[in-house]
Amino acid sequence: MAAEMFDTLAFSKRLQTGGVPAAQADTHAAAQGDLVIAYLLGQVATKADLVELEHIKALLDQMPTKADWDCCAKKEDLEGFAKKADLDCFAKKEDLEGFAKKEDLEGSAKKKDLDCFAKKEDLDGFATKADLHEMATANRKALKDLVSKMVTEEKLLLLLELRDKKMTIRLGGMILAAVVALSTFMRFMQFTGGG
To answer: CB burial class (10 A; 0-12, 13-18, 19+) of residue 25?
Structure first.
């Protein structure tokens, strides 16, 4: 970007020449200078910044809320379930060598007698440790992204404020220029005898 200069002293004198009181002209020139510096430093929002802000807002609208996660099992909800270490005390195949075989159990309970017990497919709806770890990782990333986007959105709002101030100062400058031009034209007309 080419270096640009804004002479606040010259601008203030122009305003004073146009009839603006000195204090007001100095304040207006300083504000205009600050805006020019902000523009040169890239602190003024561009159209591309506004498009990005709209994109960010759309992403935020799609993010899950706290209520969406409240239905998921938490670590403390799973404390009552058995861990691998808890199963070490159960019998293994070799521990059952001297016990009854299928033919020994002919008069005992059959498969239909066990229908009231839970089956593997009945447990499909429960979350596994890997599922919970994946959800926790996704939650941390989503939270980090949300915080980052909120900071970016706050910066963009400040830049929009600065742009509005810049437009106000530009409008004031154009009005002042028009008043000076009109005044000069009227003096010229009086001097030449045209008015």
So the answer is: buried
Residues 172 and 28: beta-carbon distance below 8 Å: yes
Q: How far apart are CA 30 and CA 24, in angstroms?
A: 10
Tokens, residue 8 = 């606040």
| Listed residue (7, 43, 9, 18) closest to 172, CA to CA | 18
Listed by start position, the domains of the chain span 8-192
pLDDT tens string 125-166 = 777 788 788 888 888 888 888 777 777 878 778 888 888 888
Alpha-helical segments (H) within the chain? 8-17, 22-40, 47-62, 66-69, 129-192
Spatial neighbors of 107 by CB under 8 A, at least 6 apart, are none
